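[agent] plan:
  1. take the single chain provided in the ticket
  2. run structure prediction with default settings
  3. attach structure tokens to the ticket
  4. add a short note for the reviewer (M.T.)
[agent] executing step 1
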Amino acid sequence: MKQNFTIRPFEYTDLDYAVGVKLVNQSWPNDPSTVEIWKHCYNNRNKDYMNRRFLGEIKQENATQIVAIGFCSESISSKKTGKYYIDFYIEQAFEKQGLDEPLYTYLVTALSDKKLRELQTGTREDNVHRIEFLQAQGFQQVMRSPSSELNVLGFDFAPFARYTEKVVASGIEIVTAQELQVRDANWMQKLYDLDMAIEQDMPSTNEFTPIGIDEFARNFKSHNIRTDAWFVAVDGEDYVGISSLWPNLVREDLFIVGTTGVLPSHRRRGIATALKLKTIAFVQAFGAGIIVTSNEENNPMYDLNLKLGFKPTPAWLTFEKSCKESTT
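[agent] step 2 finished; step 3 output follows
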């Protein structure tokens, strides 16, 4: 089969988009995307960072079938030069037919014009075939991030009411980003500062590099932004905590958690729980049923999610590999 397998650049045609979306959705059926979403993300990407795509094809008689897609990208969240992320997806019927190796080799070779020092990739922990392949290439697991989901229908708020009451009594107000846009002329800067402070404190395999405020503002031009689903804890004039939700535009019953966190100065006061309760109430009122999130396994937020009734699903495993620097 490998002798009939060739790889070419992604051409950004409707056909390439359609097949690419299909291949990725096959691996992520619970968080599907669309061609329109892919096009929007590509057109609104930060062009200062490298992002390349490739398609793998198998030629059989007079027909050519696209059976794989690969990605090479540069992280905007790490200062570390020479660190690149690769990923690839293979049609299920061809997953165990030896296509991993040529596709992986092609992606690494596609980075030969870069000073490649380190590769990062990942897969779900239930994908044993991919894990074994990555380990055979010299990758080592560096992080485990369990996913979890909550069915909000029938969620009982009563056992957690004291958290909201305590937060309100302390003078903390929880409002939406939509409300802040109206009442606070400096809302974007303050929300950006809050988000960067929280992101810096989250477990990561990358050395934290704050993105620029213009990059952060791209969120509010996104295809699926809902500022009424971003909940912010406000102490006087200060923004001290956040929990944001993103709707899946294919599955109307599904919301994805973006960032949830509280500044160190305001932790252990029940604010994170009160924020999470706001998101659950929003999804209930919206008429959706499921909230999905992911946390590094030692992050206290994961324990909070379990306390609220989130059920674990297969974790995402992050792998890294040191590479000899390559130059052209």
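[agent] step 4 note for reviewer: The chain has two domains: 2-116, 148-314.
[agent] ticket updated
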